[in-house]
């Protein structure tokens, strides 16, 4: 369990475990949150009693990505810390040997979208939205999120999301294959995600893990190789000379 109670675990039937993201008010990403998430996912992945994992949010917003007001003040060490958190956190989810199902009732934006992209099955509510706003805030992609995006998004969806920074609604996301199931009533979102996880939990676990590794190992290797070559700590930091101004513009500053 995370020391700040940012992650709430609930055990369901059939070995399904729900991991609720609860860093209020919008699950903004910070290094500690991401590293706690990685540790929790790795613990669940190693537990033979766990057959599938459901990732949910305690709030209307699924995850808004970085807190831009906070991030624009990051010094070099803080930039390195958040890059490492993004790489380690989402790699842990992407390579988790257990089936992961995500339930998105609201916006999953920028870094928050990688909880979706790193999952195996996606359930969404009728008002959910999905976007990668990094280009609008003057930041490129750390190697982990970048390689996961390349592996999970079509070339056309990479163009639409990553080069415009504009979000898409749930209908467009489902058409693009970003979402598997859309529920009409958001109050049924978690129940449907648990239902889908229960189906995956019935699959032979060793075979599921093996097939998942077959599909994803090349991407995992690229991420791990880049991380070992200082991908977690780029020499000049994550930001460039446009980033802080772009972040201020995004949050309505001068």
Notes on the protein architecture:
The chain contains 10 helices and 9 strands. β1 (7-11) and β2 (16-21) form a beta hairpin. It has helices spanning 31-46, 68-71, 76-94, 114-117, 143-152, 155-162, 170-175, 189-201, 205-231, 243-250; strands spanning 7-11, 16-21, 52-57, 100-104, 107-109, 121-124, 129-131, 168-169, 181-182. It is 45% helix and 14% strand. It has one domain (7-201): 2-enoyl-CoA Hydratase, Chain A, domain 1 (Alpha-Beta Complex). With 254 residues, the protein is of the alpha/beta class. α3 (76-94) packs parallel to α5 and α3 packs antiparallel against α9 (205-231). The strands form 2 sheets. It has a 6-stranded mixed β-sheet with strand order 1-2-3-4-6-9, sandwiched between helices.
